[in-house]
Amino acid sequence: MKATCILCDRTDELDRREFKTKQLRNKPIRMYICKECDHRVAIHTMERINSGKFKFNKPFNKPLSVLKREILERESN
User: InterPro entries, alphabetically (predicted)?
Assistant: First the structure.
């Protein structure tokens, strides 16, 4: 099954046995986000949480050292 990312308009071929593919097929209203965009959104969310200006109601357990490493990897690319 082919799916288009809603953020970058990249078309990916998805394995038809994966859970996400089954969700998209059964409920076409669901939106698909590619792995790169999903990772980028997660990094930006972590940056906002750690800025102190964003109230996040869900518990967050990722260590700061892992967060810094991911941010540095993203900036180096």
Answer: DUF2197 (IPR019241)
Q: Rounded to two decimals, what is the model's pTM?
A: 0.58
Are 11 and 33 contacting, i.e. CB atoms less than 8 angstroms apart? no
Strand partners, 4: 11
pLDDT in tens, the chain (77 residues): 888 889 999 998 988 888 888 888 888 777 889 889 999 998 888 888 888 777 667 666 677 788 888 888 888 87
Q: How far apart (Å, rounded) are the C-alpha atoms in residues 77 and 75?
A: 5
The gap from C-alpha 69 to its chain's centroid, in whole angstroms, comes to 17
8 near 37, Cβ under 8 Å? yes
